[in-house]
Amino acid sequence: MRFSFDCVFYYVTDVDRAIQFYSEVLGMSLTGRDSVARFDIDGVPFELVPAPAGEKPTGTGNGRICLKVDDIDQAVRELHERGVGTGEIEEVGTGMYAFLEDPDGNEICLWQDR
Description:
By secondary structure, the chain is of the alpha/beta class. The protein is built from 2 helices and 8 strands, in the order E-H-E-E-E-E-H-E-E-E. The strands form 2 sheets. Strands 1-4-3-2 form a 4-stranded mixed sheet, covered by helices on one side. A 4-stranded mixed sheet has the order 5-8-7-6, with helices on one face.
């Protein structure tokens, strides 16, 4: 058996709403759209996939995307100006991080190296 990488994806309840969040709020470029919405994050395929019928994504799993930023204070400030709440900026050994959620509760981490 051989495996190859395909993509990272989040389930969403409303693909159009999610596209608006990821493109207009986070500034990602939509690269394709059919039954799923496709983005490219520094060469990593990222997709928004409709949640299975009748199911709501919980966002409680351990997987998440982590977006590197040059200035986490500025990134958090700009998100707040766009009406997006974030957690507090936390410092850890090699950098700083803050979390936010997309409209379906999928967790996104912002990361800044020191």
